[in-house]
Amino acid sequence: MATLIDPEVERQEILRHYRKLLRTAKPYLKGGDAKLIKKAFNTSLEAHKDMRRKSGEPYILHPLAVAQIVVEEIGLGTTSIVAALLHDVVEDTPWEISDVEREFGTKVARIVDGLTKISGVFDYGTSEQAENFRKMLLTLSEDVRVILIKIADRLHNMRTLDSMPRHKQLKIASETIYLYAPLAHRLGLYAIKSELEDLHLKYTDTDTFRDLTQKVRQSRGARNRFIKEFVAPLDDELKAQGFDFEIKGRPKSIYSILRKMRKQNIPFEEVYDLFAIRIILDVPPEQEKAACWRVYSIVTDFYQPNPDRLRDWVSTPKANGYESLHTTVMSQTGQWVEVQIRSRRMDDIAEKGYAAHWKYKDTGAVQPESSLEAWINKVREMLETNNSSALEFMDEFRQNLFVKEVYVFTPKGKLVILPDGATALDFAFEIHTHIGLQCLGAKVNQKLEPLSYRLRNGDQVEILTSQKQRPTEEWLSYVTTSKARTRIKDYLRDDKRAKAEDGKFLLEKRLELIGVEQTQDNLNRLLAHFNVHNAHEFYYRLAIGQVDGREIKESLFDPTVPLPRTPSMLEPKTFDQEVQKLRGVRPDMLVIGQTTDHIRYTIATCCNPIPGDDVFGFETDQGIVIHRTSCPKATTLMSSFGNRIVRAKWTEQLELAFLAGIRIKGSDRVGLVNDVTKIISNSLKVNMRSITIDSDDGMFEGQIMVFVNDTAHLEKLIQRLSRVRGVLSVERFGS
Length: 735
What we know:
Largest sheet: 6 strands, mixed
Number of strands: 20
Shape: globular
Structural class: alpha+beta
Radius of gyration: 31 Å
Strand content: 15-25%
């Protein structure tokens, strides 16, 4: 029975959210702003009046929540609040952009238009969603508020993802980790980035998320006691030295704990820096740097620092504007603790990112050309110079703009910031295109290095050039920056065009020599004979000698011999149509193991799914590949190739056996391997494919590949193995 909705209760609920928004925004409002917000609220309320969200609540609560995030968590002002309240009206209701412009002005209309353009991001096939992504970045370079409101919109969607069907949850969560979390990070919104990552984990790998959340919760009491003891001496000393400050303890996000566990291959208990201590100083801008270093010396008077873990982003801020001084110190109890030292302004920028920059820019505390603006200029340049396909562009964008930086210097000491992993050749193109195209090698710290040399922080680089040097295809494997890649591709394309012209001339001369007319029919015979797809490619190969001109003989053009068939490229659409035909009635769900004989499917080796795992299918030319939803590749597949994703589930079959990997650690003893193998083969009728065990100083670590029926079967095996004497941990691993 449907629950009855009380309109009065709903009206009160909507007003409560609206009043909260006004209260939060109050400190930022100037004359007439409150009126404008009220008008936007009433417009949105009226436009969405008959709409409900998937959860059943009135739709207006979504724009209100987005506006709340925009002001409270990002710190934007009235224009953005109004745009957030109106962000869905053009897409979902009869309102047009012209109506928004008439009622609310050009600025708001431009932002709403940007948000409407990107509302359908990632909806269809690959190139279409990548094209949408490019549109989104064009709006970023026009007005960054578009992206900030879009991130707020995505955050609210992720917070309310429960009411969505499972396949939508997976798709939205994957796009979030693929694009929105890195964008939030790049724009300096650390808290939002962490929450988006955690929510992604919650929906794609629920068990792991639940398990880690519980462990963090259980260790909270002990952690708080530890923080109190750790902070006490610092607190006293900072007061004694007359600092105006605040100290916070900040727990690590679930996603970053998991990333650390996987990267270092350690259990939860060994992740030491589960939290960071943050010291925030209230000091005038001109004293910030000196104050941070004074506090650093106080901290290191009490606690021994780890010299490898000092990060100074006060002298050289990160490209997204982040400034802070980080050190990792050893506490009295033998645990490493990260201490972050920053001013109130730096903390504001770290929490609110880009929006805070504007606030401080007016006061002159941030240089007008901040590194973040330099980044946005780079995005603009990338959009202007990039003529590759939308998909390539998307990959390049993620590689170039979502990575860490490396700081290097020119011979005259000018700082150049490049993406981590950049090479000497990238550096040459960063200086100037001509220098890049004629680059022979580099002198790095006075030592000769090849083009492919990977730059390190602090390197001083001098580029060596030669008039005779020319780029080759191989250069593309030496570069990581979009700028260098685009310039090299442009050169190679122009070079190929010029060579093809030479090849065309050579062909004309050859045909003239053997007395053959230059017709389309004759050209087709040549293409078919040499197995080349098009004339341009054929001319090019002829010019560079890949096709031997002497092989072009009169006999090839004999009209009595039938024309060989030119190889045709397979039309990718046909594969999709075939799958549609085979799937029949329910085109959106593949049931694995039931009547799937007529659909070829294979189990992905990257994550080895077994019955009971949450899975999805991915269409390839060889058939459908079944992946776990928590597979490392899942995010890229779901967000980049949404149209090839097939919803999939297991049937209740037990006659099939699936390969799974188990990692086992413990203290070594005589007979241990025997005990382990006995459990596997005797008690649970599991077949083992391989076992490798290494032992070192009384400890052992082993990997066992076994055939099991499903997750329950595997779980039972893991429980039995963990009871073996000497075994400390047993866990499943992907491949």
